[in-house]
Amino acid sequence: MSAVEDEKRGGYESPLEKTVSETASNREDDSERDWTAEEEKKLVRKVDLRVFPMLCIVFGLAMLDRSNISAAYIAGLDEDVQLSVGPRYSITLLVFFISYALFEIPSNYAIRRIGARWWLSFLAVSWGACVLGMGFIQRWEVLAVLRVLLGLFEAGIFPGAIFVIASWYRTYETAQRVSIFYMASMIAAGFGPIFAYALSLIRAGGPDSDYQQGWRWIFIIEGAVTIVAGLLSPLFLIEFPEKATFLTERQKHIAQTRVRLEKESKEIKHASFKETLIMLIDWKVGLYAFQYFVAGTSVYSLSFFQPVILRDGMGFSYAESQLLQSPPYVFAIICSCISAWVSDKMRIRWPVMVFQAAVAVLGLLMVLYAVVPAARYVGLFLAIYGCQSNIPSSLAYGQNQTARPEKRGLVAAASISGGAIGGICGSTIFRSQDAPQYLPGMWTTITLQILYCIVTFSLSMYFKRQNRLADEGKRPALEGVEGFRYAP
């Protein structure tokens, strides 16, 4: 589900089935290709070992730092700064996404000029300092301001990392690696609560000391870890191929040329402002953004409110609420990988996506209405799997239906913007006054998942009909590209 299929008349070939040697062999007639497939394989393996470890660590810490407020909330933050009064908790969640959405593009503008290693390192140190500062707050307003700054600095990590990955890999090598990169966030989401629980047990100072409050240590330790990682990251993060110091001159030549040849062969054009507006008003782009909006809303709402639901809604203790958060994410990682393999192997999209959304609905209903706590907890497994798995699925779906490279970038940007709006929605639909069942938030999420099924199914049936008409010669070139077919 995480890969973009190869558009070909009469069928699609999954990028996951392409090897590096196969993509290299397609360039044998290029006069500039003066290396063997074995050399290219060796280069890619070497680059993999340098690109991903630190990048995944930094991204995992970013996901941990933006969501650790939920662990701190049930560890006493709600009482000590009166965060549970009215909509205060929702406000502190919401403000993060406002700055996060506004600064994604400016941050990606800066990374091209400053350089990936130094810019991403600066961002990590900066948001780590914000998290560290949260451990010393006395008022909820200060927490809200720090969350605004957190969103500002974290805004650059995702687009910046994708930019680095894309500069090193060919089109059909990139998607699988982006999936690995995304899994880092799910691992952080899965095991973060256990780490937070251990940190919340720390006590320091006298009986009246603020540092007897365990929630402060969640922010202090995790913020300090991020700062250290940010300071070390320039030693491990890499720049673009032409600046790589860990490659020989020949390997640098191969790394630069193999990507450049592919991009030239695709004849990527930079759309004018008018052309961009024309592509943006395509009704299909709006639906791709809606799909990602639903996925983002559901994922963020469950991430922020899962521990609250476990404690207030299911009656588990604080320790149980923290420890029970991890297993559903482990289950989601395994099932998401299986779903992605099935989707690529069978070359289907909408049945898997609709199935995952349906599983999310079933899980949410179990959380809401099951009587036995164990059954409600099983519902969390299903809900988290169904919601999380449709994040990469939705991104890939929009890319699959887009023929021109310049429009693919616009589709991706529109989808990510929809996800940012989903974060704002997800942080507001669960309100403190709705505890312990959180009926408005739960039913909003359920309704959105049902709409996701309807939109995805209807859009896919439209695409199938357009493919059939094109095959029968009753329809002009789809998406303005001769031979292109949708991949519903």
TrEMBL record:
Q: Where does the Major facilitator superfamily (MFS) profile domain start and stop, copy by copy? A: 51-468
Ranges where the record places region Disordered:
1-35
Q: Does the keyword Transmembrane helix apply?
A: yes
One GO location term (cellular component): membrane
Membrane-traversing stretches: 51-75, 87-106, 118-138, 144-168, 180-202, 214-238, 285-306, 326-343, 350-371, 377-398, 410-430, 442-463
One Pfam assignment: MFS_1
Tell me what topology the record assigns in the membrane: Multi-pass membrane protein
Q: Name one GO molecular function term.
A: transmembrane transporter activity
Question: What Gene3D superfamilies does the database record attribute to this sequence?
Answer: MFS general substrate transporter like domains (1.20.1250.20)
Can you say where in the cell this protein is located? Membrane
> Keyword annotations for this protein?
Membrane, Transmembrane, Transmembrane helix, Transport
What's the protein here called?
A: Major facilitator superfamily (MFS) profile domain-containing protein
